[in-house]
């Protein structure tokens, strides 16, 4: 395996199907550009006469659009920024925290990452979109699914406050799981 001598940037991007690692190699003498997603080579360009520019590729099961921008800062110094769906990584993650809930839990020695996409009510667990059953209950809704032989339920209840909106709670085997901050 060739040593990644021109590795200039590494980002971690939390999506519904998991946390993805993006690595970027930039040879500032040859203009070489290589993009790896989760260790797999996505783009390789050996000789580029233009040292600035952008590389666009997709990440994860939902094929989320990602772009690495290469900008000259001064002389031979470069700045690398990652955009996800056209937003800076920071903006994307801030927005994502409003549109998703994430829980990390351990069941029988296995770690699970459960993500709720609030707009679609899709539930993901360790990279797989789950089969769910939704039902209306007295104080809101419940979305039921299973992880292994564990029964899981995401309860959606109004907070009663307009600013807070709906509160989502994950319950596994009658135990409330605290939300994770990614």
From TrEMBL:
| Cellular component aspect of the GO annotation | cytoplasm
Q: Does the keyword Cytoplasm apply?
A: yes
The keyword Cytoplasm belongs to this UniProt entry's keyword annotation? yes
Query: Which InterPro entries would you find in this protein's record?
Result: FAIM1, FAIM1_dom_sf
Name its cellular compartments.
Cytoplasm
Q: Where is the signal peptide?
A: none
A GO BP entry is: apoptotic process
- Name the Pfam families on file: FAIM1
Q: Which UniProt keywords apply?
A: Apoptosis, Cytoplasm
- Explain the purpose of this protein: Plays a role as an inducible effector molecule that mediates Fas resistance produced by surface Ig engagement in B cells.
Family listed: Belongs to the FAIM1 family.
> In its UniProt entry, what is this protein called?
Fas apoptotic inhibitory molecule 1
Organism listed in the record: Circaetus pectoralis (black-chested snake-eagle)
Name the encoding gene, please: Faim
């Amino acid at each position: 395996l060739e040593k990644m001598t021109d590795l200039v940037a590494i980002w971690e991007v939390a999506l519904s199907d998991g946390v993805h690692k993006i690595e970027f190699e930039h040879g500032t003498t040859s203009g070489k550009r290589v993009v790896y997603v989760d260790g797999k080579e996505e783009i390789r360009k050996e000789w580029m006469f233009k040292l600035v520019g952008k590389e666009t590729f997709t990440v994860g099961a939902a094929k989320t659009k990602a772009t690495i921008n290469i900008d000259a800062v001064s002389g031979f110094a470069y700045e690398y920024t990652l955009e996800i769906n056209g937003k800076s990584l920071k903006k994307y993650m801030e927005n994502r925290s409003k549109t998703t809930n994430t829980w990390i839990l351990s069941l029988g020695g296995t770690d699970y990452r459960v993500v709720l996409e609030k707009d679609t009510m899709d539930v993901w667990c360790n990279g797989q979109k789950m089969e769910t059953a939704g039902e209306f209950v007295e104080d809101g809704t419940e979305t039921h699914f299973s992880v292994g032989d564990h029964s899981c339920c995401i309860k959606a209840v109004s907070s009663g406050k307009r600013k807070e909106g709906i509160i989502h709670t994950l319950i596994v085997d009658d135990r409330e799981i605290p939300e994770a901050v990614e």
